[in-house]
């Protein structure tokens, strides 16, 4: 039996050269967020309040969403027309011109009749929930073959998407008055709550 201490001693683990830099970066980000935690908290509270208001008045929130998308389509379409005209010698000029013109027309249509646009957005929302639900369920079942746990939540998320689509469809035509605004409000509320939690964690890290 060998008594050589070099043979019996465990091999020392070399230090990770990236660990000090990672800790330094995390500390810098934490200090930066801690210094501005009040602004982050104010943003979270604002989003939370807007989300609650949207949930309470989903029709108004839906119309506001349609108007926002209308202006977004209009500005992007006009910008696309300008850039496409400046590069009219490039391949695909007419297709790019057509795409920008369609964006302008879609923006004008939403701005001229936001309630009608809200009806169209509801059908887009239904299609999204159906497609996303089916894809998410298939993803969860695929993960079941390779992962021991966690896939149930993925499947559950897809089932929830299909349930939401069924609820909106069952409420037509009246659901177009509240579906978009309600879901936008829920999204804003959850985003605001998460930002508030980040702000409170940054305050705690700054005071530590």
TrEMBL record:
<feature type="transmembrane region" description="Helical">
    <location>
        <begin position="39"/>
        <end position="60"/>
    </location>
</feature>
<keyword id="KW-0472">Membrane</keyword>
<feature type="transmembrane region" description="Helical">
    <location>
        <begin position="178"/>
        <end position="202"/>
    </location>
</feature>
<keyword id="KW-0812">Transmembrane</keyword>
<feature type="transmembrane region" description="Helical">
    <location>
        <begin position="92"/>
        <end position="112"/>
    </location>
</feature>
<feature type="transmembrane region" description="Helical">
    <location>
        <begin position="118"/>
        <end position="141"/>
    </location>
</feature>
<dbReference type="GO" id="GO:0005886">
    <property type="term" value="C:plasma membrane"/>
</dbReference>
<keyword id="KW-1133">Transmembrane helix</keyword>
<feature type="transmembrane region" description="Helical">
    <location>
        <begin position="66"/>
        <end position="85"/>
    </location>
</feature>
<dbReference type="InterPro" id="IPR005325">
    <property type="entry name" value="DUF308_memb"/>
</dbReference>
<feature type="transmembrane region" description="Helical">
    <location>
        <begin position="153"/>
        <end position="172"/>
    </location>
</feature>
<dbReference type="InterPro" id="IPR052712">
    <property type="entry name" value="Acid_resist_chaperone_HdeD"/>
</dbReference>
<protein>
    <recommendedName>
        <fullName>HdeD family acid-resistance protein</fullName>
    </recommendedName>
</protein>
<dbReference type="Pfam" id="PF03729">
    <property type="entry name" value="DUF308"/>
</dbReference>
